[in-house]
Amino acid sequence: MFEIVLASVVLGLAIWTIAVAETYSATVGFVAYSLLAALIWVRLDAVDVALTEAAIGGGLGGVVLLGAAARLRDAEALTVEQASPIVRMSAAILSASITAALAFAILLLPDPAPTLAPTVVANAGATGMTNPVTNVLMAFRGMDTMLEKVVLLLAIVGVWSLASDRAWGGRPGPRHQADPNGVLAFLARLLPPAGIVVGVYILWTGADHPGGAFQGGAVLASMWLLVIMAGLADTPPVSSRWLRLILVAGPGLFLAIGLGGLWLGPAFLSYPAAFAKPLILGIEVAMILTIAATLGLLLAGAPERSSQ
Q1: Are the C-beta atoms of 231 and 177 separated by less than 8 Å?
Q2: Tens-digit pLDDT profile for residues 227-238
Q3: Could you give the CA distance from residue 235 to residue 240 in angstroms, rounded to a whole number?
Q4: What is the C-alpha to C-alpha distance for residues 195 and 174, in angstroms, rounded to an integer?
Q5: Mean pLDDT over the full length of the chain
Q6: pTM of the predicted model, to two decimals?
């Protein structure tokens, strides 16, 4: 009964988020939808996915959409153009058709579905990691995991490329100002120490329990953005050498260890059995720094001010 009620609420929120006219209301609905989706992943015993959904969809993604909604608020008041009923009906029919096709494809899956889970479990001990998700991401899907971080790096390059020539090399986003005695400044002083501990713990426990570099990095990015939004710190200039080193540290170390597998082992990204766990943990430590910096800078936006 709980799953039925939860699915009904999530479906209703999804429809309401699409149908509501106000951008701010749609954003609030999307954040609530993401948080409830995280609860669904928990009910499916996919805690790693739930942590990522809550941190990215409900947290950082919500901040991005709220910022966009705030910038569009004045423009929305002057906009009178609306989609015609034919366009709306066409979009609804297309969405319903895709949903029906996906449902039909799922029903056509063989029972039991083909799986590599027994093979993964049989070889899980080779890395020393007891968390099956970490095993799959860092060993069996190591190439995909590395390229995902390269995509984040390319996204930063794309965002920075939107800067004007005058602002290039400067600081991303506006300089935030907040009441130094207000609630936001108080939270920015209170939460980051605990948030940093939680982020590092999520990274460390990811070897044996749900967690990992992406979830921990999202928490660290949230704490960093909170401090910036409260005006207690400023975004670093994109010309900073240490910032660029952090951005390439994760993918760079991942690639170096992968090439080491070609030199010392049988294949690219193959870990020597005796050093598999230390190597993976080293990659994860570098990745959490890269992920935290990348997510924070993506939300800050393109350089807008000089580095002075």
Answers
A1: yes
A2: 888 888 889 999
A3: 11
A4: 24
A5: 85
A6: 0.79
